[in-house]
Structures are given as C-alpha cells and as structure tokens.
Amino acid sequence: MKSLELLKELVKFQSLDRDSSKGVLDYCDTYLKRHGIQTEVLENNGYKMLVCEIGNGEKTIVLNGHLDIVSADKEDFEVYEKDGNLYGRGTADMKAGCASLMETIIRLRDKDLPCKVMLQLVTDEEIGGLNCSKYLVEKGYLGDFVICGEPTNLNIGLQAKGILQIDMDIHGKSAHGSRPWQGVNAITKTLEIYNNILDLPFSREKSELYDSPSINLSKLNGGEAYNKVPDLCSMSLDIRFLPEQKPEEILEQINSLIEGEATINLIGDPVKTKIDDDYVRKLKAVIKDTTEKEPQIFGQHGSADSRFFSKLNIPAIEFGPSGANWHGKNEYVNIESMKEYENILEKFIMNMK
Fold first, then answer.
1. How many CB atoms lie within 10 A of CB 83?
2. I want to staple 287 with a disulfide (CB 3.0 to 4.6 A). Which of 50, 138, 204, 295 is the partner?
3. What are the tens digits of pLDDT across the range 156-170?
C-alpha cells in the first residue's frame, strides 16, 4: 500500500514547529514531483506550504492537510504496526490524511477528471493556521468545496464552533484576612460572575448539531497573601460558540455582568457548512456506497483550517481516516480505513459534475 509506506516516511519527521516542519514539506514536494505532479511551494513568515492542481473544469475541489504535529514523549514517536493499525505521533492527526491525499492526487493525475483538484499541504494548523491556510485563502487559492483530511473515522465533521477568548479584571476591596466582611473578595466575586455567565442567554442556546456552546474557565489569578482580602482577580475564558451565534453579542452579554469591559484575546470564525449542501450530500452517498455504513454527520467542538474557507461561504468539512488518541498516548490510524478513504475521495471526485 503506497500511502502506508509514504505515511511511515512522513512520521519520521518530528515536525513540531516552523523550522522542523520544513523538512517534511520538502520531502512531500520531492515525492510529488517524482510522481509527475507539478508543485508550488510558498513561504509566509518562515512557514512553508505546498500547492498543486490537476484536472480541468469549472469546479475545484480543495484537499487540505497539515503536516505539523503536537509534542509528545520520546516513546510516542516510535512507529510500529499492530492489529491493523499504525502507531506513532502524527499518524492519525494528520499525516495519514496527508499521505492519502497525496496518493489520491497521484492516482487521479492521468484520468479524465470532470473538475479541478487542488492539494494544499500546510505546516501550522496546530497553532492556528494563520500563516498557511489563512494565507492561501487570502491569496486566492480557493475552490467550490473543501475537504480537510482531519481524522473523523470516515464520518463528516460538518461544522465547527467559533472561538472567543477573553480576559477580564474583577475588582474588590481589600481588608485584613481576619475580618473578611470588611472587604469585598475579588476572587469569590469573580467566581460568582463566572457562574452567572453560565446562566446567560447565549450559554443556554443549542443548535441542530450542538447541545450548547462550550465555556472553559481557563485562567484565574488573584490574591497576594493569606492575611489579605484580595482586591483584584483576573479571569480568562475560552468560549467555543455555536456557528449561528455572534461573538459581539456574547461579549455584550458578558460585559453586562462586570464593571468595565472584557478584553478580547482571540476571535476565530466558526464553520457553517449546511447539512443539505449538495457536495455534502454527494460525499455522504459515496461513503455509504463504499463502506456500506451511513456516515455520521457531526459538529466539531474545536476548529480546523476549514474555518478560513467557511468565512468566505465556501462549504468546507473535516473528513479523514479512522484512528484514535491523537494529541495523546498511543496515537494510531487504522490502515484499512486509509484505503477506504482514498477510494471514497476518488469516487467522489470522478462523479463530480
């Protein structure tokens, strides 16, 4: 299996950051050129990315994959096969997807395609994608439908929550620790505000794919000494909002509970691809025909590079091979699912009209 052998080579690269990812990107460039694919390598802020395109036609299908990985213990980088799976850091997330996307492009190279197929390989998805996929979108490397090859167990990650990260300072009144009633404890005041945020209207909303937004109290800092009532507490929240929600309205609700205003650290766009999208419907049918199983349609709580395309109202999804434990111990990809994945992609593209 060519993609399996390619995957084994890709996972040898500990592509953890900007500089260490350049080697694996260059390897992919050489590999594709050796198989007759003309590539374009771009660089932005020191981050390298690769683009290539085959086929003709009015429509373009974009296959997007990231080669960067998250850190791990030394033993997690050991690559081995067991019970039909390939283990090792980056196997599932998402070098298996990248290997399969590359082999799919190679398999389709000499066929009479009904559309264009663009492959994008990037190296900074794990830290936000701002230097690669966002850059490619801004430079016009776009299509009519985007598949990010993240591990989804051959199901379809249709949507993704947006990101709103905020910081706020809550003020109290200091007093001696033996007489807390003479002061206003900023820490307990902050916790009360947090609990009130959980009861705001936006917190109780749901959608077709989500039961609620996600609210994580990610940082809390206050107090100077045991014998002093703290007069300042800083709180940071990581809010993953529903695709239909607007971050400015969420911020307005939160600001109504505090003195002053919360400070925005980051706003990330959601993925809003519709269940009844025609490309999704066609892909769903191909998956069912290939695997003899009805694929699950689900919403991601986190986000991927699909959000940069969705911001321009381009339908984008996450769809990739089966595996488990990405970002954790004993990460693996199922080898057979890689074969199915490639067959699904080829059928889907060849049936495009």
1. 8
2. 295
3. 999 999 999 999 999
